[in-house]
Design brief:
By secondary structure, the protein is α/β, with parallel strands linked by helices. The protein has 23 helices and 13 strands. It is elongated, with a radius of gyration of 28 Å.
């Protein structure tokens, strides 16, 4: 008869093959592409982009702005993040970003009212043909300090390159005696208005066609296929109603942050500003509407019109409308591959859209992607505006509660660390209270993820509604983990961790709709991430997965393949391009799961084991990235785009930017829960070391790996160990118990008996 030891030894010799096969399967799933994009071709004769800084969804109504109202219903629309450099975008930075197709900043200082960056001078008329932006060198110098690699003038240069390629093809065909292909005229970008000159300029600051007013619109369309219009209107409040200049609005932030991926930490208090209705704003909106009406009246049938609120008029930032109409554009919603979410686009997507409309290739320096229309026969002006106003209100509401959420969670987390230390090392008094505190605090981040299910931002008192949702979620989980049949041994940890993992899995599989407007997720106005799994929710999910791997009652051979299968499924949820899309999370979770499994199986964590975990994590990251990079550019996620940045030499800028963002999180509210956990762990180690249970040791190793590796490879920095501690520290203390643990439970039978 085969003994348990022999069976264990046999499976121990084959676990590497199981893990390798599982990892290969995970990589295959990670590489599954979404629907492929069609090849670029000319979609219309030309496009007019009208930029109206400050325009908000609330400015659009049938009485005051009838032309904008009509466009909202007859064409396609979306809410747009205008995030460039910093937490709000002034007009100068927006126009420059539109011309670059990448996040860029202005040369003038950025104040809360955007006064300096709203005073844009007209270009100079040179001795030769065309115009020149006078302050172009200053703009180049200002953007050289940022780590986004913006190449100012990429839009005009891409059109010029397309024209040159057409000319070369025509010359080659003529020389070979073949039919000469028709060369499209108008391969240039025209600008009307001072702000538009910044978007229409090429990389040298030269403009092919420029005019100060709309009376030259016909000449602009005759000269160029792309016309950028600045109607000279900024829709904002009057100076005495504008927000104050003392608030540090640059501290607005959110979850992770690559362009389309991850950004600054949201651990800063943004303040709350609710300006009253202003007749100055109303007059500006009417003026913008009149200009749009004149343009729409003169729009040729084979041209397209795109109207966008391209910038904030003042701090804080907000979502702004994009209205798209004209040849071939059906009524409905807009989306882009950079957001991956219906009804949302980014400012940099407008650049890529203009290039796609005229059939020009999109250069690598353009970070955005062409917008796509999602036809909707029930789309109306009223529904489009109502949706935009609601999304803007949701994003604004998050900004009023997020700092308090992190600060309160950190304070409660410090208390939970103390309660956990008491449970492990303290006396028998007040143990029920300490245990309840540990479970309740661990439930707070889970409730934060679930807070996106009800539309709490629509309540009359949105912050109160938010905290009511959090309190309800914490109460439900705490009670569920304290019932007579769930409150013993490892069951509280399994209840809370299971609820967290299930909640996030369901959300990711169903389209990642819940975390869009919660402090545990991301807000669209920040422009860091629009879908998938954000860094904060990832921390909760990873901690939950580690606890489940360590404490589920695996029996027999399931002790070997069960943790591997669970880990692989978790990696797919985190990294798949149609699900989590989290490249830093993929790297972190692969390493953490491997270390957890090794310790759970009784392996000693040597230098070789650490190298194995790190090597497999990097291999998964590299293979997944290469496979993603091989897909069409429109389908690539952040992982594939990062591989592209490595190949074109711009990856260093991304790494430096992420490192800066990570370091900037030190000292934020979640720092204190990390310090408390470190002190508590040292105290417990001195009183209870060594940890004698493989399961507890595996959980400790896995959670530590999530915290440390996650902090190093994600730009959310200290937030990763902060949320990991909030979920894991108290639950570990509840499972360890007050007395020294028994001898190592390495046999599967003993693991089953322990539960």
């Amino acid at each position: 008869m085969t003994s348990v030891a022999d069976e264990r030894a046999a499976w121990g010799r084959t676990w590497v093959r199981w893990a390798a096969a599982a990892l290969a399967g995970a990589l295959a799933l990670l590489a599954l592409p979404p629907s492929s994009a069609a090849a670029a071709e000319r979609e219309a004769a030309g496009i007019i982009i009208v930029g109206v800084p400050g325009l908000a969804w609330s400015d659009i109504d049938p009485e005051s702005t009838p032309n904008l109202w009509e466009l909202a219903g007859s064409g396609a629309s979306a809410a747009m993040s205008v995030r460039t450099i910093g937490s709000w975008t002034c007009p100068e930075a927006a126009w420059v970003s539109l011309g670059a197709g990448e996040r860029a900043g202005g040369a003038a200082p950025r104040d809360a009212q955007c006064m300096a960056q709203s005073q844009i001078p007209e270009p100079d008329a040179g001795e030769g043909p065309g115009w020149t932006v006078a302050a172009w060198d200053s703009l180049i110098e200002a953007n050289s300090a940022y780590n986004y690699g913006a190449r100012l003038g990429s839009l005009a240069d891409a059109i010029a390159v397309s024209a040159a390629e057409q000319a070369e093809l025509a010359e080659a065909a003529e020389a070979a005696g073949e039919p000469v292909p028709e060369v499209e005229p108008g391969s240039c970008v025209a600008g009307i208005g001072a702000g538009a000159s910044l978007a229409a300029a090429d990389t040298e600051g030269h403009i092919a066609f420029w005019a100060p007013g709309l009376e030259s619109l016909g000449a602009a369309m005759a000269a160029c296929d792309i016309v950028v219009v600045d109607p000279g209107v900024i829709v904002g409040d009057s100076d005495n109603r504008a927000p104050d200049t003392t608030t540090d609005y640059d501290q607005l932030g959110s979850d992770d942050t690559e362009v389309g991926d991850e950004g600054e930490s949201a651990d800063d208090h943004p303040g709350e500003i609710t300006p009253d209705a202003d007749p100055v704003r109303l007059a500006a909106a009417k003026a913008a509407d009149a200009a749009v009406g004149d343009i729409a009246e003169d729009l040729p049938a084979d041209w397209r019109l795109l109207v966008a609120g391209i910038a904030d008029a003042s701090a804080p930032s907000s979502l702004h409308p994009v209205l798209y109409s004209g040849a071939g554009v059906e009524a409905g919603d807009l989306t882009s591959s950079t957001t991956g979410r219906d009804g949302y686009v980014q400012l940099v997507d407008l650049t890529a859209t203009a290039l796609a409309v005229v059939g020009a290739d999109r250069p690598a320096t353009v970070a955005g992607a062409p917008v796509s229309v999602l036809p909707d026969p029930e789309h109306t002006s009223a529904s489009a505006v109502a949706s935009g106003v609601d999304e803007t209100a949701a994003a604004t509401a998050v900004a009023t509660v997020d700092w308090w959420f992190y600060a309160i969670l950190s304070a409660l987390g410090c208390i939970a660390v103390g309660a956990g230390v008491w449970l492990v090392c303290g006396a028998d008094r007040h143990r029920t209270l300490a245990r309840t505190v540990c479970i309740a605090v661990a439930a707070v981040p889970v409730a934060g993820v679930a807070a996106g299910i009800p539309p709490w931002w629509r309540a009359e008192n949105a912050p109160l509604a938010f905290w009511a949702v959090i309190a309800a979620g914490v109460a439900v989980l705490t009670v569920a983990a304290s019932l007579p049949f769930t409150r013993t041994r490892v069951r509280p940890a399994l209840v809370v961790a299971g609820a967290a993992a299930a909640l996030i899995v369901v959300d990711q599989v169903s389209g990642a709709t819940w975390p869009l407007h919660t402090p545990m997720g991301y807000t669209a106005q920040v422009g860091a991430r629009f879908t998938g799994l954000g860094n904060y929710a990832f921390s909760v999910f990873a901690a939950a997965v580690i606890l489940l791997i360590a404490y589920l009652p695996w029996r027999g051979r399931a002790r070997w393949w069960g943790p591997v299968l669970l880990g692989v499924c978790a990696v797919v949820i985190v990294g798949a391009p149609t699900l989590g899309r989290d490249m830093g999370g993929t790297l972190t979770l692969v390493a953490a799961v491997i270390l957890t499994c090794l310790k759970l199986w009784g392996r000693r964590l040597s230098i070789g084991a650490l190298a194995l975990a790190g090597g497999l994590a990097v291999a998964a990251f590299a293979v997944g990235g290469i496979l993603d990079y091989l897909r069409p550019v429109e389908d690539q996620t952040h992982l594939g785009r990062f591989v592209g940045s490595v190949l074109d030499g711009t990856a260093t800028q991304i790494v430096i930017r992420k490192a800066d963002a990570s370091l900037s999180t030190i000292g934020k509210p979640l720092t204190w829960i990390c310090l408390a956990a470190l002190i508590g762990a040292i105290y417990i180690w001195r009183r209870r070391a060594p940890i004698r249970s493989d399961r507890t040791a595996a959980a400790v190793i896995g959670l530590t790996a999530v915290a440390v590796v996650g902090a190093l490879v994600n730009d959310s920095g200290i937030a990763i160990p902060g949320f990991t501690t909030a979920v894991g520290f108290g639950l570990l203390a509840v499972t360890v118990g007050p007395r020294p643990e028994p001898a190592p439970d390495r046999a599967p039978a003993s693991a089953a008996a322990a539960t």
